[in-house]
Amino acid sequence: MQITNHTNYIRFMEEARSDYLEQIGWPYDKLEEAEVISPVVNVNCKYKKTTSYPDLIKITTTISKISRVKLTLNYTMKVADELVCSAESSHCFLDGNGKIIDLKTKMPEFYAALQELNQK
């Protein structure tokens, strides 16, 4: 079926999210060292156009919302400047025991960085 399977877009989002966090100075390993994990609690994709395996999909990641316990990111996926998918993922923040944490209290520098990016 020469069309990219819809489930791959979720993986693309994960890679884009990892790259985004790394670019802003907060890669996943830094969060894990602080015993903070950020599982996905919601995903929403709007598929606009099919893509095929040789297509190069450019993904732009931005912060939609940030609170003390939840982060929502937007993803714009384009092939040659044509929108193929717009998506959103929401994440909570948990400690090593799986309990929801207040990000502003547990990691104030990370929370401040996300707040600053959200205001741009």
TrEMBL record:
Entry keyword set: Hydrolase
Pfam families attached to this UniProt entry: 4HBT_2
InterPro entries in UniProt: 4-hydroxybenzoyl-CoA_TE (IPR050563), HotDog_dom_sf (IPR029069), YbgC/YbaW (IPR006684)
Ranges in a coiled coil: none
Homology family: Belongs to the 4-hydroxybenzoyl-CoA thioesterase family.
Protein name (record): Acyl-CoA thioester hydrolase, YbgC/YbaW family
Organism field: Ligilactobacillus acidipiscis DSM 15836
Source taxonomy: Bacteria, Bacillati, Bacillota, Bacilli, Lactobacillales
